[in-house]
Amino acid sequence: MQNLKVQIVDQLNLKDVKPEDIGDDQPLFVEGLGLDSIDALELIVLLQQHYGIKLAKAEDGPEVFRSVNSMARYITEHKK
Amino acid sequence: MIDQYCIEAFAGISKGRIIRNGESLPDLVAGSFDELMDVAYASLSPGYPKFHKMDSLSKLGFMTSEYLFQNTNALESIDKTKVGLVISNKSSSLDTDIKFQNMLMKGVASPSVFVYTLPNILIGEICIRNKFKGESVFFISESYNISNQVNYISLLLKNGIVDACIGGWVELMKDSYKSFLYLVTKCAKGKEGDFKEENLSNIFNKI
Questions:
Q1: A29, A45, A46, B63: which sits with the fewest CB atoms below 10 Å from its CB?
Q2: What is the ipTM, given to two decimal places?
Q3: pTM (2 decimals)?
Q4: Fold topology of B5-205
């Protein structure tokens, strides 16, 4: 989980955020980390680059990228 | 009576230093461009994390605008839909275009890099930050054509398309960079207009 947080901070260039500051269930978008639509695309790239996972259905995005926990769950289920 | 236009403020960044209204800011000196941007951001503490995600050209333009607006209240009474931006440079967004191309050749296409492969994105960043919604344009030319810029901005002002305009030059390519932004509005009563090619040229050459 900590590794994923480090990857998110690196991929999104979140200079004001430390990986340990991100809560496991904290929302990543809007009221949480405040990520935007471009960040969502970067998270898709992160899944492809680090885990070889291609998000098959765009409509799954909001649930997959809801929090670090939901991302970790998706990675565990789909990692090649 | 013919309206007179005045340069209300100006700022520039070049060679590791930041200049505001003719004064070099002594605490804001750095070796590399990245260091200078970090020092400048830390000094202003704008609480704007999106800055860190910008490409170098947008960082340069954005930070120059932050210092431009820092000590002026000239825009307070002006409708944000009547604030325009007319900026130019030589290299367009080529610095980022090359970075993006190199990424593509490695098989990675970063969306956050791709969005900066247009020079006018830096105008967008300044507009988003300050809620400006007026006319904007980005010109590419081999060198800074101040005469054309003065004429263009004067037309916008005289025709009432804008009530205030940010003009200037924001150029960045690899390790070479120079920015100059100024704010021009209708002169206060009794003040003689100084929005002239010669004055801008003198300021630009000192940055």
A1: A45
A2: 0.78
A3: 0.91
A4: Peroxisomal Thiolase; Chain A, domain 1 (3.40.47)
